[in-house]
Amino acid sequence: MTRSTQQTRFRLANQILDVIRDARMEPGHHLREQQLADLVGVSRTPIRSALDLLAERGVVETRKNQGFFLRKPFDILHRIEIEIPSTIEEELYTKLVRDRLATRIPNSVTQSEISRRYDVDRVAVTRTLSRLAEAGLIVRNPGHGWTFAPTLDSFISLRASYEFRLTLEPAGFLVPTFKPDHAAIERMRLQHLYLASHPDIASVSSMQLFETDAAFHEMCAESSGNAFFAQAIQSQNRLRRLLEFGSYFDSRRVREWCREHLGIIEAIASGNFAEASVRMRSHLEQALASAQVAAKQSDTVPPNRAP
Questions:
Q1: What is the pTM of this model?
Q2: CA 111, CA 126: separation in Å to the nearest integer?
Q3: Chain centroid to CA 196: how far?
């Protein structure tokens, strides 16, 4: 099993746990593969693998020719969580971004320097640099080495970005073409419930937190039915990825924005798009306010501002 497949298995197992808890299922409940696959948005094969993992942990049991059945009551499952193992590449990705934010590494680096500094093999370095390049965070030099791409590197530009998003994102809920994908909304809700109730949010990788945050804002923009809204938010996510990445080390703020996102999700699910717009504005204003407070403590945008 590859690392990526293994991580998918663990993430799906946690999503299934969220479904069980949310539906308040009791022991003996038949966990149907196709039903879970439709809800989560994947095929039956990875769902079966995730259920096998839950069976290994004693959460569910398999019955020959019948399928998977819940063993433990939903209230006990609030204390059960399947930790997602990190990969070497993910750990290196996080270290490179964190160290660049803290200026512990120079703007330009070579693969050999990275390999020596972090004691990882060249294959892992190559894969990690490729991922950073795909995210628009780093570019290959014409001659030798790699250079981190310019991004939101001052509070002035950060504020300008938030002002742009405050103009655009709340308005997306109010256009006549706004039409949410309810399956996507439910999947996003489950992901946020998992993070909001996580007993040790600091142990969740910053990459996973950023991707959840970015995916939420892109989902809202895509629901507008206007491709220009979606493209603009995707562009903003690319611009803020490097410095905003550091904000996910602030566990308190992470829990706050999870709750704020859940409030927006609830408003969308209930069809109250005007309320969703108001909540989105409040969410972005709170994020900007947190950035302003943090900026007073530093001449540059600090790494622990709100996302």
A1: 0.58
A2: 7
A3: 12
